[in-house]
Amino acid sequence: MATTSSKLLCLLAAIAMPVCSAAQDDGGNKINVSGSIQSDIIIPEEDKTIKAKGYNEWGLTNTYADVNVTSEHIDAGARFEFVKHPLPTFYDEKGFKGWGVPYVYVKAHFKSWDLTLGNFYEQFGSGFILRTYEERTLGIDNSLLGGRLVVRPVKGVTAKILSGKQRRFWAHNNGWVTGADLELNFDQWFKALSDKGTYLTLGASWVNKYEKDEDLVIGTSHKLNFPTSVNAFDVRASLQKGGFNILAEYAWKGQDPTFDGRYPYIYREGNVAMLSASYSKSGLSLLVQAKRSDAMVFRSRRGETSAIASSINHLPAFTTEHTYALAALYPYATQPNGEWAYQAELGYRFKRNTALGGKYGMNVKVNFSHVHAIDRNNHAVNPYNGTFSGTDGYGSAFWKWGDETYYQDFNIQIEKPFSRAFRLNLMYMNQFYNQTIVEGEGGMVHSDIFIADAKYRINRKLTLRGELQYLSTDDDDGDWLYGLLELSFLPHWMFTVADMYNSGRTNVHYYQGYVSYNHGSHRVQLGYGRTREGWNCAGGVCRRVPSSRGFTLSYNYNF
């Protein structure tokens, strides 16, 4: 990896040198250098109580350093990563360990076109058929290595074409991902629309995955015939009028037999449809969404078994991404192989000096999410291995529900200032979580969660914040309690202590303590404590987090 890193660094230097020269020749083209450093370290300790294992290394770290050079028309950048001894969450992920410079790019940008060579991220529409992105908390980096051309031939028209191989940890998959996207902004053509605050956008996308055939034999002698080329299409429309916004989107994917835990290697076409409407004005917001997906697993490597690698697309979650510890204890992972998902949210601000608003006003937000199985009429299994492999898997009536609830969440949040110094947030949440669907076993977990979050500003520099949380359930590990105290000294220091305690079945404490220091663009955090085994989710994508204990050190710097 070191040899590859050196080559990539040399390439970046070669790119940057003519950029600097051109800037100097131009006589005034300013060159900007920016970047960031992020390093998270744990000195792990074995803890048999929470089943935290020991490691051969004294310390584990995920460290990243980005540098970007920008000028008037040419940009270049690179990222150095050191995950040779990664954090416990990623330690056992096959292929994750390594170090080097896996991300290098150069970009030329002008008024009517942009050209990127090297590594890049891209998203078409909502991501139904293409979304490449980085999410370090999950270990996701599915960037493409290749080229992307963006053309703006006339006002209101944006066209994209791209092709590349997808990153899989420290390698790139053999398959090619190629795509094109066209977006039309009608309000830029018709002045009468923009004058009336009306904005209409239409878009269409195409993505092709090319992957060579491979030998996969079921039974004793029956080889599956894989399609080498899989196409996917997406169409969408967005209309905004004042505070009202509506988005409709539909995507279709051809037969794409890939590994899937429930329906592996089935020859079934995929589709997803979404309708989202929102309205907002001063003090009021409303959101209503519905989505149906079926067989939308789309990977650049058909045999991929990792939950976080090789995904070409992304289906946005229609559930609230909670930040409170117990509200996020049972997070939902989007099921791309099929689900009906609904979400509705109402937010309202009661004005100051009203009966409910009081002297300082009050904010209320109510959210409801429900995710259900699609209808599935399973077809006969393959007689040679007793699975659905090699068949079309099942039939499904579009508008019909299946038998299972995957997830349901009703929550109400109240934010109420009582004075300039004191603020109180309250939250109640009723949750149904199908542990079998998300984790593989466990059945339905039904819980009620109560949260109080209070903040008191003692003086101009000193603020105290506290949380009390309670999760009540008869399922899984039973009840949980959580408490947190946070004391901040502006402008530099913050001290935090917290404990999550299972009062149901295990009677185990998950204690944590942190000291944070901020100075300019630098942030350092030192901590010690336990982390519970569970799930970490972002955007409906989840990965397993093992239990751990030890000292932690985090450093972040932006320049």
Could you provide a short overview of the structure?
With 559 residues, the protein is mainly β.
Provide an overview of this structure.
The chain has 559 residues and is mainly β. Helices cover 7% and strands 54% of the residues. It is built from four helices and 32 strands. The chain has a 24-stranded antiparallel β-barrel. A two-stranded antiparallel ribbon has the order 6-7. The longest helix is centred in the first third of the chain and has 25 residues, at 2-26. Residues 1-27 have low confidence and may be disordered.
Poorly predicted sequence stretches spanning 5 or more consecutive residues: 1-27
In what range is the share of β-strand residues? over 45%
Shape: globular
Look at the structure and give the mean pLDDT: 92
Query: Would you tell me the structural class of the helices and strands?
Result: mainly beta
Number of helices: 4
Radius of gyration equals 26 Å
- Helix residue percentage: under 10%
The beta-strand count equals 32
Sheet with the most strands, sense and barrel status: 24 strands, antiparallel, barrel
How far is the N terminus from the C terminus?
27 Å
